[in-house]
Design a protein that fits this description.
Elements lengths: L1 H31 L3 H29 L3 H55 L1
Helix pairs in contact: 1-2, 2-3
Length: about 120
């Protein structure tokens, strides 16, 4: 039984670290992109990872500390994280559907910029 407890705690701690790293990765991707829809898409993915971080952190709290306060706070973390995952997954789906539209508009914008630069060179 002690092996299962140690394995569960090790798995949860690893999941905590992994979800936090992925949250930071997608936040950096959000900051580095110049496109608005893609930025919102990366932000929604980052928030999903943050929600998973909260869920795993809440489960870890409830598993390691056997007090009423730990169960209450862990439960709050699990509920908030679950809500965040649900809400931002809907946002991710919405923005993913708009990515091709933004891509087309971006290509048109780039072509317009090139044509403008060619006309300016010709003058």
């Amino acid at each position: 039984m002690e092996f299962l407890f140690t394995f569960a705690v090790s798995f949860l701690v690893t999941a905590i670290v992994a979800t936090f790293i992925l949250f930071v990765v997608f936040k950096v991707r959000k900051i580095r992109t110049i496109r608005d829809v893609r930025s919102a898409y990366y932000n929604s993915i980052a928030r999903i990872w943050l929600g998973l971080f909260l869920v795993v952190f809440g489960l870890n709290t409830m598993l390691q500390f056997h007090t009423l306060v730990a169960y209450i706070i862990g439960g709050i973390f699990v509920l908030l994280g679950g809500y965040q995952v649900f809400y931002f997954n809907k946002a991710r789906k919405y923005f993913k559907g708009n990515l091709p539209i933004e891509e087309q508009a971006w290509k048109e914008f780039e072509a317009m910029k090139e044509n403008k630069a060619k006309r300016k060179k010709q003058k």
